[in-house]
Amino acid sequence: MKTNLIYGLHPVMEAIKSGKQIDKIFIQKKLKGRGAQKLLELLKVHNIHYKNVPVEKLNKLTRENHQGVVAYISPIKFAILENILEQPANQSRLFIILDGITDPRNFGAIIRTAVAVNADGLIFSENNSAPVNEDTIKTSAGGIFNIPLIKVKHLKDAIFLLQAYDINIFAATEKAQQSIYETDLKTNIAVIMGSEGKGIHKSLLELCTAKIKLPMSSKMTSLNVSVACGVILYEVIRQRLWK
Please, what are the domains in the chain? Predict the structure, then answer.
């Protein structure tokens, strides 16, 4: 069993009551009973998002008697975006927004690069995002403990808040006409990276300042998302060092 995985109605409720940072919580579909009702009420009070899943999903996570509930405790404490934005900055802001990145290794690799370029924070949704687990920590090479991770309910709200602080939003997509090398990345920016399968959600694309892409040979249509993110972030640093 993974060290940050807990299961069972009582252990999960006690973890929430004690103030543990819950990363993910899965509840069996149509789970009934007094205990289940108490758990749902507790989740509502603490404003914790959960996902209803088939019992087969829970059985894959643990072979123990999970009672229809499995949760992951985050090894880190998530940051609040507004608090970061209120702090004075010594350089132009740089945020990374992840839309639908569900692979922990890609997540960890992006975190590692974000720390290397001294990004202000990494923003992701509490739903449809990779868990903060051992794979994420290992792939980040410990970087996960050196950057604010900002988990939000809705990425749209995070984008609106960033824009209110005069931060330009750039969407990395192969459908863009504009190359990163033709884009001024020296200002306050946030870069959205989408999943390799679905890309960036249309509703987020509509909110962006501009869409940017990496030049690509006709022999290849895309890069691994963590690799693409690394290239973009280091172009940001290159421009800022030579401005």
Answer: 5-73 (3.30.1330.30), 81-241 (3.40.1280.10)
